[in-house]
Automatic annotation (TrEMBL):
<dbReference type="Pfam" id="PF08268">
    <property type="entry name" value="FBA_3"/>
</dbReference>
<protein>
    <submittedName>
        <fullName>F-box protein DOR-like</fullName>
    </submittedName>
</protein>
<dbReference type="InterPro" id="IPR017451">
    <property type="entry name" value="F-box-assoc_interact_dom"/>
</dbReference>
<dbReference type="InterPro" id="IPR013187">
    <property type="entry name" value="F-box-assoc_dom_typ3"/>
</dbReference>
<feature type="domain" description="F-box associated beta-propeller type 3">
    <location>
        <begin position="4"/>
        <end position="125"/>
    </location>
</feature>
């Protein structure tokens, strides 16, 4: 198992996982037919298991001409993908690995940031309490 710079590391059921796939630079498009999730089974022995996911035929219609990148994996076994640049409308894609289904969700109110490069993250928590200056 070799990790490439475009691999996305995830927590897969408590184990280290890495998404590998897509085209050049790890880009996933409507033309992508499958991708791999490698899961570290034994770190000392460097053993990995390979999970191959073949995307449903509907994938091409839902994703169309978008260039997507792996964001992560939800606790409900959904792989989250997003574009690197913000376009209007902006979508986040969920691929359910159990059901082999894809869902496109439109995120509204992002037009002010159109054409900016950004990163979508999962499970981000920030402490927003006000700090007192002493």
């Amino acid at each position: 198992m070799e990790l490439w710079s475009n691999s996305t590391l995830v927590n897969y059921k408590g184990k280290l996982g890495a998404f590998v796939g897509g085209g050049v630079g790890g880009v996933v498009t409507g033309e992508t037919t499958s991708f791999e999730l490698w899961v570290l089974v034994d770190a000392e022995k460097h053993e990995w298991s390979k999970h191959l996911y073949v995307l449903p035929p509907l994938w091409k219609n839902v994703v169309a001409k978008s260039d997507l990148y792996f964001v992560g994996l939800t606790g409900k076994d959904e792989i989250v993908l997003s574009e690197l640049y913000l376009y209007d409308p902006f979508y986040v894609y969920y691929y359910n690995i159990k059901d082999n289904t894809v869902t496109r969700v439109e995120i509204q109110g992002m037009s002010a940031f159109k054409n900016f490069k950004f990163h979508v993250s999962l499970d981000h928590v920030e402490d927003v309490k006000l700090m007192q200056h002493v």
